[in-house]
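User: Round two. Same drill as before: sequence, then structure, for each protein.

Assistant: Same drill it is. First protein:
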Amino acid sequence: MSQIPVELVKLLIALAAIAAFVGLNGLVLVYLERKIAGHVQRRPGPFEVGPHGLLQPLADAVKLIGKQLFTPAGADKLLFWMAPVLSFFPVLLLFLPLPFGPTATGMEMNLGLLLILAFSGLNVLAICLAGWGSNNKWGILGAARGVAQSVAYEIPLLLSVLAIAFQTGSLNLSEIVQGQGGWPWQWNAFVQPLAFIIFFVSALGETNRAPFDLPEAESELTAGFHTEYSGMGFGMFFLAEYANMIVVCSVATALFLGGWQGPFFAGSWWFLLKVYVLLVVMIWLRWTYPRVRFDQLLNINWKWLMPLALLNLLITAFVTKLF
């Protein structure tokens, strides 16, 4: 009887740990989102379920799990239910190359950054399937917006990542982290501040976060591409959004903020601290700035982010070649 390969066992354990991590972080981020929203609006936020509302995310999760799964009349059942699955499960693979610590990487690979960029594009397909498969006019409009937005904002995001790849000569996130130091002036964000800003703004657009949440604009499209979803169909889109937020903040931490390295005692806590600081900034931006119009959203990309990202890449390539 042949033995199970050790690498396969490690991969399965890593995926199980990632699934648990995503679920737990989903609960934490729901609580953070609602609490920060409350304080920004001068109210306490969740307060009744558990001490200071700590059990509110758990109550929300139980409510979602208990709701009926409903397929609208006229919807394409296969596409309709394929969309939330396609939105959530590929996200788990994006966590594999992330270096959470010196030895805490799900799967060490030379092209880890390329894997993340390749599989993150599947979310666009999920949005498209959700809007089209639900046979709902708001869903189709949201899907069309989502595809246009994702295709546009992927380009400056890729260009900002390429600048770091040129500078470090690697697509391995662990090697990129090791090439930085623990102090802020040793981080790539200090050397490449423009690339960091472009990456972060593009990440907001890619994850459909306010002020760029046009695909699900409640005031215009009810809930956009997931208007017709209930129960865990909606829950999977919800979890996928938070998982994607963690991924983009983790990639930003590895590329620009020194990853797990810190001024004292390098370790995973530094990585998680930096990731959560970026997540809090993303949540704070949502509840501070109004939603932009769709023409403004595309103008920000094509008139500002794209030219600046190209200029930054050309300067990086020139300086790298020269020195």
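Second protein:
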Amino acid sequence: MSSDLDHPWSSDLTNPGGTTRRLLVRQARWIAHDVLELRLTRPTGGPLPAWEPGAHVELTLPSGLRRPYSLCGEVADSEAWTVAVHRVPEGRGGSREIHETALVGRELEVRGPINRFPLVPAAGYLLLAGGIGVTPLLPMARELTARGLPWRLVLGARDRSRLGYAEELVALGGDRVLLVPQDEVGLPDLAAELAAVPPSYAVYACGPRPMLDAVTALCRTADPARSPHVERFTAADGTEPVQLDAPSGEFEVVLARSGLRLTVPADRSVLDVVREKLPDVPFSCEEGYCGTCETPVTAGLPDHRDTVIEPSERPTATTMMICVSRCDSPVLELEL
């Protein structure tokens, strides 16, 4: 995901670290079928740090699971952060816990805001959402409307009951918003949507893996080719973490702040080895798509295998996702 730190939306909110604070789950409400919205505030009230469209926070759930969720409330609402969570029965447990636990009135540890999906300057914007993927795009649509910039948003879901924030989006954008309930009209015509906007438009997409893979392929083969901005909820290919499949040997990791030197075997991740000594190192997806485990690199040559850092940015990247990425040098030094 690329960004331009000189454009009006950019700030140090893109810092991969983020601050941790305890927030109260003040309110919960249903905004679509199997989608629960949580409103988070300071326990005693008061303003929260500002954030920008595309930002997310990471919740530590009562069980200890850490999960990232896009902020989808009003940027101007300084009193609360809002996230919406889709229940995925076959998922890894985070969404089920949120839906099945009485969270209202409880405090959660919240890290962020963090923005790896920021708006970049463009002549206009095509926003493509699948299901819960609407959450980071809704604040973008609000921001673009406020700035008087052209945009179009396409939201698809299995049926109308799953089109989250549909009424608000239509009220906001009118005929700039296309709702696509699959049971009525089929899948969104992504090729037609991409062909209908000028090459100068930025393309943003968030949703299920097949949709994002399709958007990426269509943009790659377009004339001229486009570079879409995508945010994934699952690994790019749905396989096991990539370091288990790709060849890689053993290497050493030096933890600069802790003064530790550890051996990372060929069949284990950096994250696994580091957590044996530093169990509080943050992580979530363990598949290289969420960015929670992003760690500064102070020496060595990282072998980037995540989907967070754009391929074009990897040669100069100063951080790595330690859940999947490895090392092309004998020793890797991390700021841990």
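The radius of gyration is 20 Å.

User: Perfect.
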